[in-house]
TrEMBL record:
Record region (Disordered): 469-512
Spans of repeat ANK: 31-63, 561-594
UniProt-listed PROSITE patterns: ANK_REP_REGION, ANK_REPEAT
Record key words, sorted: ANK repeat, Repeat
Family matches, as Pfam families: Ank_2 (PF12796)
Database matches in InterPro entries: Ankyrin_rpt, Ankyrin_rpt-contain_sf
UniProt-recorded name of the protein: Uncharacterized protein
């Protein structure tokens, strides 16, 4: 038995034997743990005694062995180890004992009187403040409350920093649950804790005021604000004051009391050197909340509070408040390459203009839109919609084409489509740029396709109901600007045809051109056809690779799987959506995806016989289209072994049983290999 195992088991004989053989009692294993660490972890008091007697060191081990004993509630081992510890670095042991409710151990540690730090040097206190405390569960404050409350009649020999830590825990307990402890620590002329304390918690500075604001504890906030010496501009986490922490919490500021407290917190100005979250990522939440509340006074307070530290992210707030000076400062910067405000901020601003279309700020918004369009940051259709006061329809333009807007934006786009459709040029350009397909997928993903407006969206002449989304982006070269060939192959009822164009830089001539000798003309024509076929194959491969990447999760819209809307609905067993799509005569029931699978094949794959029935009602459906493995719909049904679906297919009398897949197998042979006798019998009839 090695020394580590003997210590883990608490075997005195094993420890003595290992030491006599020359084992080092301070040697660390591969994980950096000593034999004493294993003995403490297992709670073996006698093993700890013998190891210490043999020279085992208590200090210089991480994590702290004393901390380990406290966590395991091994009180006798704590008392054994204590004389060997450097107490100025063991403040976490007391914090752990109280936080976990091990008050017996805590009483022992407090009884040593060393945590009062009366005899310690100033550097020890500074070390404790710098090292800070660990982040505990929010329920830890309850144990501190019990410990302090029971002993409040006694003299607690503790340095103030421990009471400050208890105050921090109490201020961030959920739903003002720590209010009693806050009052206990701050009562009297000489309170136990400092309301303006700042302590390092896991490398972040926390204060009572900012903690309460972040958690939205309005009762605790009110208590702290009422204290005459509380500094309202003190900064905590993220170097934020309490004012911003409170605004980042949507629930408390929705109440009248929350807004009143926010007003009090913002009364004092901050120094000019104050910087906030230079990336602006956290401030987005603050701006979103104040825009949604629609309180102009609060918006101006935020603008005054953050100064220029928020960068371009503050732009929607400046528009809303009609702060032209601040707008000029923002817009004069080179924002073409700057990070733009998130779309949700512009959406909330549009909500304001929709409710208040006569606002003076609308003129400012339109000027900002013109600037962003000039910088090629926004599409010019934004301006068209703003001028027509179609604030619902304009919201979608803030989101990139390869992103699905939130449900609210999708609903507004669908509802405002009828208004936008009165302008044919707008709708035509909207559809040609891909926004129609984006809107279609947004509606499908949001589950709002049951709206009557969905029918009008399907009727949009330029929308491609068989196009997987997002479309492939074209490059600036002439060769790449040639449209991709359809992925559906030569399918029955196919609407999209690949335009026959000559390869770049080559004029394609007829072999019967009288100005060219017949043999040379035929040879040249065949060569150009071969080049064209190679280019088509390359483009088809690129398109399939892109769709495969989306399916693998690399694309933002990976959930579409590269399918058309009809195929996606069939693959997800959404028969109602299938019915809605099929009501449009422009939907191609025979479209195929990158693997050449049809909507019918996708419905069969999920054993959705109801969708299969709906698809089979379409007169020009082709049951004999092959996928990339050469298999038709009936092959997929045979593989799944669903007798009812087999019967639905065979009853159409359109199934070609002579077709063999790429492996040369027929559907009957596949069914036989599966051992489904009822399927074999159905196919035989």
């Amino acid at each position: 038995m090695d020394l580590y195992e003997a210590a883990r088991q608490g075997s005195i004989d094993g420890i003595e034997s290992a030491v006599e053989k020359g084992c080092d009692v301070n040697a660390l294993d591969e994980y950096g743990n000593s034999p004493l660490w294993f003995a403490v972890q297992s709670g073996h008091l006698d093993a700890c005694r013998i190891l210490i007697a043999r020279g085992a060191r208590v200090e210089r081990q991480s994590p702290s062995i004393l901390e380990l004993a406290v966590q395991g509630e091994h009180a006798e081992i704590v008392e054994l180890l204590w004389p060997y510890c450097k107490v100025e670095r063991q403040h976490r042991s007391l914090e752990t004992a109280i936080s976990l409710g091990f008050h017996g151990i805590a009483d022992f540690l407090v009884g040593t009187r060393v945590f009062e730090y009366q005899k310690s040097q100033a550097r020890d206190i500074e070390l404790l403040i710098r090292d800070g405390f660990s982040r505990r569960e929010i329920t830890a404050f309850q144990q501190w409350e019990r410990f302090i409350f029971v002993r409040r009649s006694e003299k607690l020999n503790l340095h103030r920093i421990f009471f400050d830590y208890a105050l921090l825990l109490a201020t961030k307990a959920d739903r003002n649950a720590g209010l009693r402890l806050v009052n206990l620590l701050l009562e009297g002329e000489k309170p136990l804790a400092d309301a303006n304390c700042m302590i390092n918690i896991n490398k972040e500075i926390e204060t009572p005021l900012t903690n309460a604001a972040e958690k939205g504890n309005l009762e605790i906030l009110a208590t702290l604000i009422e204290r005459p010496n509380t500094r309202l501009t003190i900064c905590g986490k993220y170097n934020w004051p309490a004012f911003l922490h409170l605004l980042a919490n949507s629930e408390p500021i929705a109440s009248e009391k929350g807004r009143a407290i926010a007003g009090k917190l913002s009364t004092e100005s901050l120094p000019d050197s104050f910087l906030i979250d230079h990336k602006g990522s956290r401030l987005e939440t603050v701006f979103k909340n104040v825009l949604r509340l629609g309180d102009d006074a609060l918006i101006k307070q935020v603008i005054d509070f953050v100064h220029g530290a928020a960068g371009i992210c503050i732009l929607p707030l400046l528009v809303r408040a009609n702060e032209t000076k601040g707008l000029r400062w923002i817009l004069n910067r080179d924002i073409a390459h700057a990070s733009k405000p998130p779309p949700i901020l512009w959406v909330l601003l549009c909500n304001f203009f929709k409710c208040d279309p006569n606002s003076k700020a609308l003129t400012t918004f339109i000027r900002v839109a013109e600037f962003l369009i000039e910088k090629a940051i926004w599409d010019r259709m934004v301006l068209m919609c703003l001028n027509s006061r179609n604030f619902g329809f304009v919201k979608q333009f803030f989101y990139p084409l390869n992103e699905i807007p939130p449900r609210e934006v999708a609903e507004e786009t669908l509802a405002a489509f009828s208004q936008a459709s009165t302008d044919p040029s707008l709708v035509r350009e909207w559809a040609e740029k891909g926004f129609a397909n984006a809107a279609l997928w947004s509606v499908i993903q949001s589950g709002i396709w049951k709206s009557p407006a969905f029918e009008s969206l399907l009727s949009c002449s330029n929308i491609d109901l068989d196009e997987p989304f997002p479309r492939r982006k074209s490059s600036d070269t002439a060769e790449d600007n040639i449209p991709l060939p359809p992925l559906s192959g030569n399918s029955t009822g196919e609407k999209r045809k690949f335009p026959f164009r000559s390869p770049t830089g080559i004029s394609l001539k007829s072999p019967l051109d009288p100005g060219m000798p017949q043999s040379h003309a035929l040879q040249d024509y065949q060569m150009q056809l071969m080049l064209l076929e190679q280019q088509n194959k390359r483009r088809l491969m690129m398109a399939r690779n892109e769709q495969m990447e989306m399916t693998a999760g690399k694309g933002i819209l990976a959930w579409t799987g590269g399918k058309s809307p009809l195929a996606w609905a069939a693959a997800n067993g959404n028969v109602e959506l299938v019915e809605a799509l099929l009501r449009s005569s422009r939907v191609n029931v025979n479209s195929q995806d990158a693997q050449k699978r049809t909507p019918l094949m996708h419905a069969i794959a999920v054993n959705d016989w109801q969708t299969v029935e709906e698809l089979l009602k379409i007169g020009d459906i082709d049951l004999n289209l092959r996928d990339s493995e050469g298999r038709t719909a009936v092959f997929h049904a045979a593989q799944g072994g669903e007798l009812h679906i087999i019967q639905l297919l065979t009853q159409t009398q359109k199934v070609d049983f002579s077709i063999r897949d790429c492996n040369g197998e027929s559907v009957q042979e596949i069914a036989e290999n599966k051992g489904k006798q009822d399927v074999v019998a159905a196919l035989a009839t």
